[in-house]
Amino acid sequence: MSDPLSASVAPERLSQRELHDIDAYWRAANYLTIGQIYLMDNPLLREPLRLDHVKPRLLGHWGTSPGLSFIYAHLNRVIRARDEGVIYVCGPGHGGPAMVANTYLEGTYSELYPDITLDEAGMRKLFRQFSFPGGIPSHAAPDVPGSIHEGGELGYALSHAFGAAFDNPDLIVACVVGDGEAETGPLAAAWHSNKFLNPARDGAVLPILHLNGYKIANPTILARIPEDELHALFIGYGYEPLFVEGHDPSLMHERMAVVLDQAMDKIHNIQNAARGGSEHSSRPKWPMIVLRSPKGWTGPKEVDGLKTEGFWRSHQVPLSGIAENPKHLKLLEEWLRSYRPEELFDPTGAPFASIRETAPRGMRRMSANPHANGGLLRKSLDLPSLQDHAVVAGQPGSMKAESTKAMGDFLRAVVKLNDVAKNFRIVGPDETASNRLQDVFQVTERAWMETILPEDVHLGRDGRVMEILSEHTCQGWLEGYLLTGRHGLFSCYEAFIHIVDSMFNQHAKWLDACQDIPWRRPISSLNYLLSSHVWHQEHNGFSHQDPGFIDVALNKKADIVRVYLPPDANTLLCVTDHVLRTWNRINIIVAGKPPSWQWLSMDKAVVHCRAGIGIWDWASTGNVGEPDVVLACAGDVPTLETLAAVQLLKELAPNLAIRVVNVVDLMTLQPKEHHPHGLSDKQFDALFTTDKPVIFAYHGYPWTIHRLTYRRTNHNNIHVRGYNEEGTTTTPFDMTVLNGLDRYHIVHSVLDWVPELKSIRVGLKQVMDSKLVEHRAYIRAHGQDMPEIRDWQWVDERASKSG
């Protein structure tokens, strides 16, 4: 294959001393990497290697590691020479041992883990702990200094990198993309992040595509396509690709130094032009590097007569079965000694000073850069007064409002108040206005670095709203933004947030792991607004109707996840204010956008949201003692249908004592010992009784409520109505009918389960059934819901009598 740089490499870019020291650093990192994978004793080979020095279970990945350390060594040179602020995002999934090796050489690892000392004893512990019970994972997990990206699942490195660079003008994010990762859909979309990076305001991302040719057992696509196609691909993505390829270390060091300097020069030229006051009318062509090096570089060339270096056999552990094959033990020792450890580590086991000095100092070390521990930089948002944005409600159900539009007005104020700090962004797949958050466009635009036409609206270079039709990229941007110390919100249609289920899982695991790492400072919470939800997707049909993301969230640790189902605008505002103040959480808010009845004043909403759950006395009937039935609701549409059912029951069974319980914070239903927001059994029983029927109208799948309450005293009396995977293109009310969540079915359940209504049960059921038949016929004749549904309004009899 041709070498695009062979004719242009300037000789002597590195002095002989620099070349020697960088190569020594690289050899040391490779030695430490192999030691972590294989050794549990004899870390410096002070004696011949024996089987008892080798781990019984060989875990970890060698194939990508030498390339990662090669890049790390050369970034260190650039940082020192130019005094750059750089963090390293390691995309290859199992690059953990290389990242640990480099942070150990920089000294950061020992600073944060004092028992892992820079000597032989510390090296022994370093080796033993890797992928070992009671030790550390094989990825660049949260316990690795400098990491903001674990890489356990492929595809997200580049979107994380750009998220970190937004609003960080002095930061360069070096993002290594493995050629296996480059085959994923999320990564393919993330290349377009350069269309949103403003050189006048943001930092820079330097993508480094590391082509070592193979995945676990197959070639990679980008490593095999012709060079001209590879070049054209990245030109088409809007980058200026720079190529480094070869096998010989000394030549590769020179080539990498040249190209890395070129890339840094180009980045600073772009930024200087943009920040010098000249108007940048077109998006710049940011540089990126394509590094082509052998898989398992510097490892065994062959094992058992089979090609290993430069082939997929070096992907994980090139020498396996050591206990059964003494030849492999000998090969392992020869491999380790090929790095000449006596030239790398002094008699105490510490790296020689010349090697340590190739790394930057202090916070310029990539493993010590505060941006990679974003809680160090995090500052609380300035938030507006809730009362200034309250929906002024009179009696419950006396007015309508668009809940998420009220939230948009609140977010408009958040953006404005934090305009100077520039530490808050809204991301979403082209749904900011669709989800009724459009008031934010009064104070900001959508970020956009491409051509802006005269007829375009709300596009600008400095927008705080970022929209791209890739939920993966939105999620990755926001995660990178939060992990480097800022705040944000992800607005999405409820059904399609499932696209990022796996990314959500990874972030939740990251937060959970960070709780056990004292030096990891808390970061702002990942906040979701899920609107255009299942009950408001009657126009788009079955494909858009899915409330199951809540259930994905509930699988995570209780102290990480929160789920909020505000029933109206003021409760939505209270919840929004709350989640923007939290840290180390994932907050899910589900709220509808159409005009809907408002139930609580702001003062009452604040009290209700602080509790997370409560009795709505104004909607309940009968005396203040024990009810005959509890009607519970969680979600805006379930609340509406519950109150409509209450009103029907008042007419049909006026002596029935009904207690209405509304749930805003879903986690209150769990026992207190399972979730910090959970109710004690005594509190739960006070709300739901110990022996009365509970008819629970719920936003999502009914089993979720049973799962949360199965250990409660009265669980056998809890009967849930929710989404039952029935949907189509129909009317709003018919969606509830199809799933049995409507007012008529709720009355049915009350009639079924309340013994006091036995004498009138059959007659009232017939009335409800007649209403359902009438509804079905009406919508098929008129294409809309019946007037009594469309025009329904809560009637507060007590208020009208007192008036």
Verbal overview:
The chain is α/β, with parallel strands linked by helices. It folds into 3 domains: 24-372, Thiamin diphosphate (ThDP)-binding fold, Pyr/PP domains (Rossmann fold, 3-Layer(aba) Sandwich); 387-596, Thiamin diphosphate (ThDP)-binding fold, Pyr/PP domains (Rossmann fold); 612-802, Rossmann fold. 36% of the residues lie in helices and 13% in strands. It is built from 26 helices and 22 strands. The protein is elongated. It starts with 15 loop residues before the first helix and ends with a helix. Residues 593-794 form the Xylulose 5-phosphate/Fructose 6-phosphate phosphoketolase C-terminal domain. GO terms for molecular function: fructose-6-phosphate phosphoketolase activity; phosphoketolase activity.
Labels describing this entry:
single chain; about 800 residues; alpha/beta; Rossmann fold; 3 domains; six-stranded parallel beta sheet; 26 helices; disordered N terminus; EC 4.1.2.-; fructose-6-phosphate phosphoketolase activity; THDP-binding
